[in-house]
Structure formats: structure tokens, C-alpha cells
Amino acid sequence: MSVSSIHIPCHGQLLANGLKVLVLPAPGSRVVSVHVWIHAGSAAENPGKTGVAHLLEHLMFKGTANRSAGEFDRLIESKGGSTNAATWVDWTCYHQTAPAGALDLLLELEADRLSGLAISESQFLSELDVVRSERRLEVDDSPEGRISERAASLVFGGHPYAHPTIGYAVDLAGLTLADIRDFYREHYHPGNITLVISGDITPETAFPRAEKWFGVLPGAGGRMLRAAVPPGPVKPVESILELPAEMTRFELAWWVPGFRDPLQTVADVAAEILGAGEASRLYQTLVTDEELLQELDVSVTPWLHAAVLDIDAVVREGVDWRAARERIEEELRAIASGGLREGEMERAINRMDADHVRSLKNCDSRAWTFGFFDVMTGDPAEVLREPEKLHRVIAGDVRAFVAEWLNPGRQVCVAGIPSGDPGANG
Amino acid sequence: MGEFRVLCESSRGLPNAVFQIAFARGAADDPPGKAGAHHLLASLMMRGTKKRSRREFRLALDHLGSTLYGQTDYHYLSLVGESLTPHLEATLELTAECLFEASLDAGEFESLMREAVGDRLATRDEDEELVVEFFRDALFSSHPYGRIVGGDLHSLARIDLEDLKTVRDRLLTAPLVIAAAGGDVDQEQWTRLLEKYFPRLTALNLPEPWTMPEAPRSGGMRLVIVDKPERSQTQLVMGHLGLAASHPDRLALAVAINIFGGTFTSRYTQEIREKRGWSYGAHCTLSSNRGADSLAMFAFPQNQVAVDAVLESVRLYQHFTAGGVTEEELDFARNYLINRYPLSVETAEQRVFRKGSGMILGLPDNFEDTYLERLRGLELDEVNRAVRQWCRPGELVIAAVGDPDILLPIADRLPGVVQVSVIPFDIR
Q1: Residues whose CB is less than 8 angstroms from the CB of residue A137 and which lie 6 or more positions away in sequence, other chains included
Q2: Does the interface predicted TM-score (ipTM) exceed 0.95?
Q3: What is the percent of chain B with per-residue pLDDT over 70, rounded to a whole number?
Q4: Do B233 and A133 touch (CB under 8 A)?
């Protein structure tokens, strides 16, 4: 079996209230994953109310009109299930996995909290503290978190993609239960939801159950796409943060086209060539050969309307971070003018093919991958067309992409310098 | 003779396979004063062979779309790989090449050591890692489990290339080698590939007894403050010695700890996170190892409530130890663990790696097969006896990364603390 010939049946049905259901049978797996994708994330937040989508995600595990606080988790645990959720700019996803016999319970619980969430003021305040703790862990006490937050704000300016999904500390302090209820009312309705059921089930058994539990949710409008394509930076930006840290770090970030644009596949290939694995261009040069960097990571955010290609670097002790930055830019110029080296394309495509297979490994990862593609493209079958799209990219595409999109005139650079390091500002 | 164990779990759904060649020798076997030697060897083996430079080796792997990395823990060093099915054989050939024909080049060794030192410095920016390192150091002292698997600045400075060559030679005579594969491969194919590329392993194994000294017990609570101001919250680990994976009371204690802090609805998580909102993460874990590892609570409260969080954590643990668990709690936990078992063995990869881990931990061959039966047979008395015997709040080591000015009052407010240390965060 080749990567491009992988076939995973995906059955779809649209309920009368506008909710989309996907069923991915995996006979014999003995487990079932239920994912509920809300087509709204932090980009749907209003100014001054950042963090509300993520806080609501936390609060969805509290009580409903029918069930007391803690009952949701307890019922799922009683069946041996695991439960979690995630929020990013374009979506919020609730995902549960349990033995296949627990399907009805998972569906019932999900439908219940989508229609009857009931949060008390004390639950709201306690969970707000939990989210503040999460923010301190991920951002305030994390050098990478601080740098990344600043970079996104500079790349996207006043656009909703500019603010962190976890929310600014000052906004979190001002959130109210009414803000949560408003977001829930506005975005958690059937026309804005994709339900994915993946596992030891058949379409014949899964669809009627989805209809039973989710078909009764009152419909209220369609999908809301509030975040328009953001403008990218028109000139280079540099920002330096002094941080209580041992190592100097920096991030180079560029605005690049969003998920539905064919160029994002090219951006993914470029990122792979630049920084994925020890044999990648930048890792080989800056980490292995010249020992300018301690760590290097290159990634593209899979966002709908526009994305960021990030190069995150941790600088070796005693190295001038600006010299490392200049060396990265040199390599980008070399690609823009001279193209790729022999074998770089093949290497990247092979690695990405393997990643594609990995993303389909179990019921939970399949539910995640197909649900994500449905949210981002409207067509979950796009998942299985990914290898074909990938193999259409040629070296000239990557060269042109680097020349046009990763040039210094569009670059945002944020450096985090250890406090009190007199030489680090360069 | 040493043992060579072949494990395979087939699943033909996707065109890929994972594998692990694990040697039962790891950081606990590092030469005296040279913590990190096995971990470094795992990296150096992939930095060039007699046939290929480091870059050529990596490119060869990437061209196959395969992954291969070295993984080290206290009792094993393993090479873990994954590849698309058509490239499995070529990936195994590369694996055998780095195992048997690694060049262990002096230049690459120097480069690796510089990188390892850099990694240590970078760890100083990771409070969650730091607190675990200092907790283990205080709990296990000079016992092998107190080492950092990757080594610290002092041990790294003592390691030379000859040490790694010695470690490599000894690795190939490890008392147990496990060759596990899962996915789009069957037992016959896997055995044929092993015979073709790893024929030397069985011949080289020599008998060698495993010995693991007991870590010392503590005579009271100890407070270890890792001095790192300018943080908005405090990283906490509070624990004491646990039980070896093969200990007869292990399952009973593990179920008890699951009740206390192992799930979202557990007592500790409910009290610290849900009721008080003090910490995004709050859980308790009984770590699994060949010897007795740790039993520990983890949380990261904001500074203003850090002292209260420590006091409350200790109080909850004392209360749990004194009262044990209820029949209702045991029923719930037992059902949870039995019901969730299919999730742990859904893929061939999960199944085969679970079996391999059990062997490394010295568990009996039928451990996995009897797991559910043993769970079903657990009695309340058995669980509470394990709690009374093995949960020892009076011996807690409380490690905290944060501001000493904020944390020192713990010593005054918590009866039973017999020792307080304040340690700079950048000494290891």
C-alpha cells in the first residue's frame, strides 16, 4: 500500500438543524472517539475580551441544567474514557475517547452541554484562576511564550489573529460570566458545529445516534467567519525583550497565506526543508556545522485566513544572536537566488508523507485530522488528497515562495535577551 | 546466556511500522561520577558510522522518510524507529549500522559535548524540569535514580570518548535485548529481518545479574527551595519513595494513588484545581521503575498562594493516608482502569511497546495477560493496607522552584520539617 492509496472511509451527513456529522468506521478497534468541533476560536473574540473562547472551553466541563458540576468527567471516567479540549484561533475542539460501548453516553453528554450549559459565578471565578495559572505557565514564566506572544501581535497588528488564544492577562482580569454566555450563545449552535465519530462503529449505527442526540439542538443561523484576511507587515519590525532567562532566544516570523491557499502547502514544504530534522538546511548549518544555535524549530501555523512561518532559535552561549540571525537570512537569500540543493525536495516530501500516515494512526488521531480538515476546508475528504497536493509541489515553487514571502522586508524579529546581559543587545 | 526477546504485533491498516531495539542497560549503569554516559552514547551512535558521515546518515534516513532516535532511561537504552513499510528493511539496516559500526568520532564527540552543555544551560529556563531534577536529587541522594539521565555539568565534564566506547561495548553484552515491532509487519518478517541485520546480538549476550540498591529513606520532611526569583508562580513537587514495578503491593498502591490524584475527578485535583483554582495542573503519580521510584504530587500555584498550596497538599495527603480509600472509591477506580484498558492497547504500537516496557521493568511474562484479572481481584483491605504501609507523609521531600522569601515560611508553618535547604538554580 502506498501513501497516496490510503483509503479511510469517511461518511458524512447534514442534520436538519445544520450540524454536520462525520463517521469514520474502524472495525475491531474496540474504542470510539467523539470530537465536537466548534467553528470558532479566539479570532472570534471582541477587543478587550481576549481569552473568552478558551475560558469557555474550560467551563464546558462544569455543570449543565441537567447535570451537576463534575458529573461530566465522572461519567466519562466511569466508562474508562478520557476527555479533553483545545482552542486555537479558528476553532475549539472537544474530544473524548472511550470503549466503543460508551458511544451513547459520549453523545448524550456532548449534546447536553451544547444546549444547556449552566455555570455559577463561583465556578467561573475558580476556573478563571486556573486559566490564569495556565497563562503564567505557558507565557509569563516562559521565555518562548513571551516571545511568541509579541511576535504574533507584530505580524497581525490589530487583526484578531494578533492576540493570544489564552488571552491577555489584563483582559482575563476583566472577563465576566456574561461574556462567556454571550460567546456561547453566539457561536455554539448546530450550524457552527462538526461532530466526528470515529472507531468501532458503522454508519448505520452511528448516524441515527447522532440524530437522536444532536438533531434536537435548536438551529440558529449558519457559520460565522468574522476574521477577514489580515494585512501583513509592510516593513521589517524588530522588538527586543529583556527576560529573566539564561539563554538568548529569537523568533523570525513572516505573514504567509492561509490554510485554503495552495501556497500553504508550499510554505509547509519550505519549513520542512529549512528546519525539520538534523539534515535540514538551517539545522545542519547553524546547529551542527557552525554551532551558532542550541535549538532550532521552523513551523507554519495552520490558520485559516493567514498564517505565520516561524523560525524559533535558542542561541548558543557566547554567540551574538544577530550573527545567527544574519546567517539564517543568508541561507534564505541563497535559496531565493540559487534554489534548492539536490535531494532537499525529495527528503522533505518523504518526511511529510510519513507524517501524513502518522496522523491517521488511531481512532482519536483520525477524528482529529478529518475534523480539522472539515473546519478548515469544508471538505474532510481533503485529508486523503494531501499527499497528491504535496507531490505536486516542485523545487521552483519553494524557491519562488522563499523569495517572495520570506524576505527581510516582511520579517518580524523578536529577541528575548537575558536581563542584565550587557553584550546581548548587540 | 543473556536473553534476546522478539516481540511483534501486526496491524495491516496503514503502510507503516514502528520498532524498538532495547538494551537493558541505561543511566543507572553509567560509570561512577559520569552520569549521562548512556544518554550521550545514544546520540553519538547516530553521528556517523564507518560508512557514512553524520550528515550522510541523517540524509539516508530522511530520504526514506523514516525516523530513528536513541532513547535512554535509568534501565534501558533503545533505538526507536518508524518507517513506511517499503522502507522498513532499509531503516533497520541503518539502525544496525549505527549500532555495530558507529564511528564514535572524536570531532563528533567534542561537538556533542558542547551541545550537551548547552542543553543543560537551556534547562535552567524550564522550571518544570528543574523542579523534578532537584526533587529527585534530594529524594534519592547518591542512589542512581538521583542522577539526571542526560548528566549534569559536573558529570559531563568528566566523560571522555573512551568512556563512551566502553559503555558501547558493555551495551552489546546487556543481559536482555528486546526487539519489538508493531504495525505493517508480521512475526516471520520481523524475525527474518532481525536475523539478517542483528545476528551478533544473541551471540554477544552474557549473563549478568541485575542489582538495584534501595534508596535511603528520610527521617522527616525536607524542604528544598530552588532559588529562582522573578517567577510569577512556584513549581512544586512533593513526594517520597514509592515501590518497584514488580513489588507485590504495586498494583494496590497504584489504584490508591489513582484515587488520590490520578484523574480529573481525583481528590487532589478536585481540591487544588477545581475547588480552589490554585493551579492549572495538580496531580499525584506513582512512578514505575525496576527499583522503588517516587510517589509524588505536582502543582504550580501562583506565588501568593504557594505556601497555602503546600500546606493544603500535605494536609490532603495526611488525611488520605490516615483514612485510606472507601469501597465506593475503589469500585470507581477499578472500573475506570478496567474499562480504559482497550484505549491502552488500541494500536499495534501500543501493544508491543507495553510488553517491551514490562520486560525492561522486570515484570513476569504473564503480567500483561493477568493485569485485568488482578485488578478485578483487588480488595479494599489490600488497597488500604498498601496506603498505610507505603504512603508516608512524614517523609515528604518538598521541592519548590521559586522565591525563597515567599517559600521559607513553609518551614515554620508545617510541623515535621526537619531540614531546609536553599539551593541556587544554576548549580547543575
Answers
A1: B128, B233, B280, B281, B300
A2: no
A3: 97
A4: yes
